[in-house]
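Run UDP-arabinopyranose mutase through structure prediction, thanks.
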Amino acid sequence: MSETGATAILKEEVDIVIPTIRNLEFLEKWRAFFEPYHLIIVQDGDPSKGIKVPEGFDYELYNRNDINRILGSKSHCISFKDSACRCFGFLLSKKKYIFTIDDDCFVAKDPSGKEINALEQHLKNLLTPSTPFFFNTLYDPFREGTDFVRGYPFSLREGVPTAASHGLWLNIPDYDAPTQLVKPLERNTRYVDAVMTIPKGTLFPMCGMNLAFNRELIGPVMYFGLMGDGQPIGRYDDMWAGWCMKVISDHLGFGVKTGLPYVWHSKASNPFVNLKKEYKGIYWQEELIPFFQSVSLPKECTTAQKCYVELSKQVKAKLGKVDEYFNKLADNMVTWIEAWEELNPSVAPKSDALPNGSAK
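Sure, done. The structure for UDP-arabinopyranose mutase is below.
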């Protein structure tokens, strides 16, 4: 798929969602790749602060006042002062594919020095099947120059629809606070030219900095939880969404890919601030992971929404004992689904949500 081909075919089917607290000069670095697409910008923090977007981009800009206006009594399910607010953009989008990226991520280069079109690679990943039931030792058999290896069952070679494409980062790796503290100078310089399907039954730590997904398949489960202001935990928003998404994708027969594309992650966040946000999560994840590994969804759960509501019940029943926070989170998982169905009815008229900023 050429860059122009991807643009011509899919520009009406993709929204780029960006959470931010600052002016978006970083878009200038992405102009060649992002300008044809529609952006949904979710401003976190003080809604009275102006956010500048470079000229020439087609965008909608939403802040906390807009979240309160559009969601009303359900607005409490969207986190404040945390990048988890990005999922508000997922709610409002009407496109088939979402690409979400952080504003400290720039265009990376491959080993030949060529700039990487991250969005194009994500679309390649999403438009080709995944192979979650049997591992192919040459990784993604649908990439150019490779195929299924000898011994791969022919009955499984058709693959399954790909729900999500998880990209990686050069320069600053996505480390937790303790690892940041003991490796303050470590940088990722290893470019691994590979895409692979994460096997069924295997969880992974999903990072929201460089992520794309098929909204029609698993959009309703891409809720980034309750994080940030007023919550006992932060920096686990994408982890939570990833664990939920993976067990539901496994149940529904979808696949998840990880690997290419890379972005250039430009700066490390403060490890001491991160530790304050993460420390409960570091303890809790030792119980969260076994919980997700043991999740079983009944066969009656045939849609992403039904799966997510059922998962919320299991969160309340089993994780509510870990901390009261998980009872609150489970309730907000249900609120999120109610908001999703309100803004995305099955016979889908356009949402009446109005942008407060646009540029052509």
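The first helix runs from residue 3 to 10.
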